[in-house]
Structure formats: C-alpha cells, structure tokens
Sequence to fold (275 residues):
Amino acid sequence: MIERKFIAQKTKEYQIQEYINENLKNVGHSHTKMVKTPLGEKIVLYASRPGLIVGRKGQNIKELTKTLKKRFGLENPQIEISEVTDINLDANIVAERIANSLERFGTQKFKAIGHRVMEDVISAGALGIEITISGKIPSSRAKSWRFYSGYLKKCGNIAIVDVDKAYVQAKLKTGVVGIKVSLMPPGIKLPDKVELIEEKEEKIEEVSEENKEGKKEIKPKAKKTANTNARTKSNVVEKEAEDKNPDEEKAEKESVIKPHKEPAPNVHDEVKNED
Fold:
C-alpha cells in the first residue's frame, strides 16, 4: 500500500533527526531538513556555530555520512550546513543555551538566567516569549517556574504554525530538569490587528511642510452665495445706467413698440348680420 510507504519514509526521517540531535549537542544545532534529489538524499543542518559541526578538515561530517549510510541505509547522503542569522529568535538554540548555563552555574542562579535570556529575545525583536523550567529547582522538591514577556498566542492556527517551540533536558546532580521555550518571532500577521489610515491628517501635514520650505499658500476660493450674486448684478446695472447719455435714453424710449389694441365690436353691426 502507498500509505505504508509514506509512513515508513516519515518514521525514517524522524529517526535520522533524533540521531543528529543527540550527536550534535552543545554546538548550537537548531533543526534539520531532508530533501530528495536525483543524485541522492540531501540533509541540511541549521546551526549557530557551523565550524564546530564541520570539525578539523571535515572529520565530523565524514563520520556522520558513514554512520548514516550504515545505520539508515542511505545511498548517497549529501550534508550541507547553513548558519542561523539571529540566535535569539530560534527557540531550540535559546533552550539549549539555558540548559548549558544551568549545567555550568547550577540551580541557584536560575532566575537570573531566565530573565537575562528573556531580555535578549525581546530586544532582538520577538513579539513574545515564555520559558518554563520544571524540576528540583532550587530545593529538593520538584517545582515549575514560568518566565514570560510580551504577547504570545496560546490557541488557534498561529499558535500551531507560527509559534516556535522547543523542549530540552538539562542533566544536573539533583536530577533531570526540563526546559520548554515558546517564542513568537517578528513579522507575523495577526488576525486581530487592525490599522486605521487617516488621510486628512496626512494631507494637512504635507501642506505645512511645503509652507516651511517657502512655497506660496494656496487658499481655497470662497463659494458665492445668492446674496453676493444679486449684489453684483445690481452694481452692474447701476454702472450701465450711469454711463448712458440722456439722448440715448430718449431714443430707446421712442423705439419701444407700443402694443396694438383691436377696436371693440359694434352692437348695430351684429344685429344687421343676424337679419
């Protein structure tokens, strides 16, 4: 069946990733990706310190390729190493750094370690972070401590897809301590974020900047009302009347044609017509 082939392939990839994570500890390893190519299988390792993974003259990579061929039956594995741009925005590297500092300094300074890491992540531009340390800290009784800052989604599609999560264990004298880091990187478009654009204020600011440079102000023309139009018309008629001569006025009056009035009908004529 085709389904069984897909399941077997995914389980094989998961086993390879677990093996690489176990072997590449304290090196700043973030995660691995597997890509199929016509030449063979390509394995990409993301790490903060690629020089330690390569080793002297590439000895560590040669040993990795040999073990992958023998243990997992890969024909031609091609290993590539890519450097992580920002260390503070990767949950796996942050959790590994906390575990290393706990193993080095002990459980007495766990609060200082948590707050310092949290400040570094927020200053790098992350929207939010949550760190939980559970175990025998600082006493012999097990307890869980939580450090959080910023805005972090706990449910929905963003919490599943966009939030970066990591689980690491620190082996101490008192016992094993579990570290969980959930980080929300910058650049995520949240569905509940709404931005309002104010166009009127922007136009006013542009005009004020032009006036500062020394350009002329363009004042809007006032709208003419009915009263102003009537006043202007009356002023024009008065000016025309003043300009005219008296002789021209007489000529205009004589040239006016008087209406023709029809004579009233005579009663005697109507009687004659009836006869």
Remarks:
- The chain has a mean pLDDT of 76.
- Strands lie at 29-36, 41-47, 78-83, 128-135, 143-150, 164-171, 176-184.
- The chain has ten helices and seven strands.
- The first strand starts at residue 29 and ends at 36.
